[in-house]
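FIELD: query
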Amino acid sequence: MIRHNARRASLLVGLIASIAALPAIAQRQAGASQPQPSLGQSWPQMTNVSAAPGWRVYVFVQDKVKYIQVNDLVGTVRATVATANGHFLVLPLGADARRVSTPTQPLAAALDSTSPAIIVYQDNEVQLTARYQSDGSTVWTATAKKASATTTPSSAAPPAKPATSVVCPPCAGGQSN
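FIELD: result
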């Protein structure tokens, strides 16, 4: 009886080990040589592409969707936005997830703020700015970059107020709201 139970236990352990190895085998067969970094991590194994000291920005791209994650200097995820074709979706990741303004979901705090906008990330399609509020919180604004001036008549709209280049928040990374 003991030998029979020992055989069952060893078979069960072998079965569990082989099931646990399936994702690694599938990844190798698909040609992935390294594990993919995970969205939402404090310290993803990616390059920090932040345009502002005091913040760490990581960009993930999957299935033509760009995910932009902002962390503070202590690794706390602050805000995460997904974007594709000029559309934005605020993900429920980060301490500031409820303080992210987008073109379709603008926040009054971002629109009414008198504090300067700090460019935290920008590329050819997207700009992400931070505005520090008097209560110590940060409001984020994600916008699509405008098309080149050749496609828009100069008399159609007044020039946009450029974002101010402020170095970093007074408590870069130390706040947690």
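FIELD: remark
The chain is about 20% helix and 30% strand.
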